[in-house]
Amino acid sequence: MPNPLTGDPKSHDVSEFKDSITGHCLCGSITVTIRDPTLFDGRHGHICHCANCRKVSGSFAAPNLAIEKDKVTIEDKNRTLKVYEDYETMSGNVVRRAFCSNCGSPVRSETPMYDGQGKLVIKMGMFPRIPTPEFETFADHRHPWQGKHEGVTQFKIARGGPTL
Ligand SMILES: [Zn+2]
Ligand SMILES: [Zn+2]
């Protein structure tokens, strides 16, 4: 039996998410809902190639979405959400990385920079469909075999800095 969570993103029309989109961690303990009717209009979110995002995601890059906290609801029914305080950051600011302590799925990141804007970062891998990203960070640290995403701005390091 295929796991129903192993879905083809294309099997979900974006019209399904016109009010909100909901995702779960791998074990289902943590549910995240994003309420943003514009999420699939245009480009939203970014792909980060920094070493910390690669470790956290277990991948060559991580799909992230910085979004207003009041648009996000996180349910933690089995109380498995755990926070790792990451001090090994370029900015020197602590990044509070939350993940499911049962299954290991990354859930969200919070930093003083985003706190000031009333935002947090949602790790998008748990959602049935991910919006077309707007930009990449740490694009200078891409692996040479990675393809290029058309129309996605590649910041060498941080957003707003020099681009590739
Ligand atoms: Zn879990
Ligand atoms: Zn990163």
TrEMBL record:
* Pfam (any one): GFA
Record's InterPro entries? Answer: CENP-V/GFA, Mss4-like_sf
Molecular function (GO) terms listed? carbon-sulfur lyase activity; metal ion binding
Q: Which PANTHER family match?
A: CENP-V_GFA DOMAIN-CONTAINING PROTEIN, GFA DOMAIN-CONTAINING PROTEIN
> Protein name, please?
CENP-V/GFA domain-containing protein
Membrane spanning segments where?
none
Q: Which family does it belong to?
A: Belongs to the Gfa family.
Source organism (scientific name): Rhizodiscina lignyota
- The CENP-V/GFA domain is annotated at 21-146
- Record keywords: Lyase, Metal-binding, Zinc
**By its UniProt entry, which Gene3D superfamilies does this protein fall under?**
glutathione-dependent formaldehyde- activating enzyme (gfa)
